[in-house]
Amino acid sequence: MDYDAILQELYRLERFGIKLGLDTITELLGYMGNPQNRFKTVHVTGTNGKGSVCAFVASVLRKAGYRVGLYTSPHLVRFNERIVVDGREIPDEDVARIYAEMKPAIERTSGGSKVKQPTFFEVTTAMAFHYFAERKIDVGVIEVGMGGRMDATNVIRPLVAVLTRIGLEHTEHLGKTVDRIAREKAGIIKPGCRVVTVDQPTLPIIEAQAHALGCPVTVVGRDVRVERLSFDRTGQRLRVSDGGAVELEIPLLGSYQPENAAIGYAAVRDASKMGLTISDAAIVAGFKDTVWPGRLQIVRTGPAVVVDGTHNAPGVPALAASLREL
Description:
This protein has one domain: UDP-N-acetylmuramoyl-L-alanine:D-glutamate ligase (3-Layer(aba) Sandwich). 38% of the residues lie in helices and 19% in strands. It contains 11 helices and 13 strands. The chain has helices at residues 3-12, 23-31, 50-63, 92-110, 120-134, 171-174, 178-185, 203-212, 257-273, 280-288, 316-325; strands at 40-45, 68-71, 83-85, 88-89, 139-143, 160-163, 194-198, 217-220, 225-232, 235-241, 245-250, 297-300, 305-307. The protein has an 8-stranded mixed β-sheet, with helices on both faces. A hairpin with a 2-residue loop joins strand 9 (225-232) and strand 10. Helix 1 runs parallel beside helix 4 (92-110). It is globular, with a radius of gyration of 19 Å. The relative contact order is 0.15.
């Protein structure tokens, strides 16, 4: 099958909807040799800011000399955007080849049952892990698809678990209150990892889960602080303090991005405490060269045309405030 035919078959899996739970993905990955165990990871969840934080962290790790896989969702234009190694999307031919290689494992997992049929997201996640292992990445930066505890990505044991700001979303799957959603998202915390989050109303829930598992917690707004020094339509200059201070330049616009940058900064600092070697120079260069399209991106001037992927109620006020700044 060629790439287009493979994509059509993949997208047909969406008819199986969203099935939160780890049994199917665990079985599928087991038949594939558990590729997710062959590289280190940073795991990122939250309501908004996940993608930006992933982009910051991946960029810094690359500048530090690591081979980095980046798995995010959804894509903006092409499926391949979801699976990236060292800044390059997975080639069409590798999507087709890997899916063909996975088919026996997919069929074995389903056993002809619609109940056990892997979903689109489960298959895509397994494809990403297979590709990352095949490309011998050092670190995978993995964005949660939905929630955390029962998300298909939650088969990894990360060096750092990151939780951005949490609000009401996907209430039909995650719970009707922010506290319940926070408990679901805190499910990515595993014994032995470090935890990065932001000072927010659900912080006690996150800290309780982390402390129960013996995981240290770094809180942006308490342990790490960020000051916005200047901004224009080309980017922003920030000062991030965590005992010392470092000035960062970021190309991403928006009044909410300084917090995301501080979360990313805390994550790479914690990753260095888990054995990765990340210099200050790599941090500065990584933030400066971060690329993350579709986030308050000015695609044309005169008149200005701005593209942004805000898609839920918690993100709208921040988007409105940022548009007023432009």
